[in-house]
Design goal:
7-stranded mixed beta sheet, 3 domains, 12 helices, Rossmann fold, 296 residues, alpha/beta
């Protein structure tokens, strides 16, 4: 029985199935990581969509979502996994004030906490489920708790709760949203940055390795981000989308060529023409989207 991660009901639609063996091979090839412990019990990974929120998700998200050991491996194998200067960081900084009480869900190595500290914001708390990353933050002097938000006590409330590239990983997304809203002050801001699955980077590439389980189990886009505002009684303050970088435009261009000419000839055409073609491409949305909500 497949249930929506938002409504916990059977009101879901089956979209397609992905080949588990192909996903396993991709993680081995690209990162040298064995994901059989997470995915091996499922010969296919179904993609579904919640009818109420229109959020797409992978079936059995609770079982196949990456755990601490997976993320510790990924951080070791993929040097730029925790990026020091994400587009999202600078995009949301104007919404913070010096007196803001801030909670960041999923602090990674503390790069956004570093930025908040430079703004002289003093009341900052981070949450991080990776024990290695939490230790890194603590060694830098940040108050970071190695815990999911559901286990956080409710004695303190916050003016801003933010997360960057976290909600696509969460098997318990409903519980996280409910607890985040509960911990917010009235008129407080909730900021959620996720991969933009309406971007051609992902819509043209259903087997984009890091957009697959066990890494990602939720597939967000602007439609689902707007839908959850109504479901959780939030006001949408803003929706921000990253513009595709030159390298992302090159990737999109290659995906388009492969779709037309096939993998072999598409790759050749891309190699021959990418240097000028990517610069001629108009505006394209990049990999990230941010939803900023206000608690009513």
């Amino acid at each position: 029985m497949i249930l929506s991660p938002i409504t916990h009901s059977e009101e879901v639609v089956h979209i397609k199935d992905l080949d588990t063996n192909k996903i396993i091979d991709l993680y081995r090839r690209d990162f040298g990581i064995d994901v059989i412990p997470e995915l091996g019990n499922f010969p296919q990974i179904g993609m579904y969509q919640c009818k109420s929120s229109l959020l797409r998700f992978y079936a059995h998200y609770e079982e196949i979502a990456g755990k601490d050991a997976f993320y510790c491996q990924l951080a070791q194998k993929y040097a730029s996994y925790y990026s020091e200067d994400k587009w999202e960081f600078n995009a949301v900084l104007p919404y913070f004030k010096k007196k803001s009480k801030v909670l960041e869900i999923g602090s990674g190595n503390g790069y956004f906490l570093d930025k908040l500290k430079k703004l002289q914001i003093k009341d900052i708390t981070g949450l991080e489920i990776s024990s290695d990353a939490a230790k890194t933050c603590q060694q830098k002097g940040h108050q970071v708790i190695n815990s999911p938000i559901e286990d956080l006590n409710e004695e303190k409330t916050y003016d801003v709760i933010c997360s960057f590239q976290i909600f696509e990983h969460l098997p318990n997304v409903d519980a996280t949203l409910l607890k985040s809203i509960k911990l917010l002050e009235k008129d407080g801001l909730l900021m959620i940055s996720v991969p933009n699955n309406l971007s051609l980077l992902f819509s043209l590439d259903p087997y984009h390795t890091l957009n697959l389980p066990p890494h990602h189990v939720m597939l967000w886009d602007e439609i689902s981000l707007r839908k959850i505002a109504k479901l959780y009684d939030l006001e949408v303050v803003d929706i921000l989308k990253s513009e595709a970088t030159i390298s992302e435009k090159s990737r999109i261009y290659k995906l388009q060529l492969v779709g037309i000419f096939g993998s072999f000839f598409g790759s050749i055409f891309h190699t021959l023409t990418r240097f000028w073609a990517k610069n001629l491409m108009g505006q394209r949305y990049g990999a990230a989207i941010i939803a900023i909500y206000r608690k009513k």
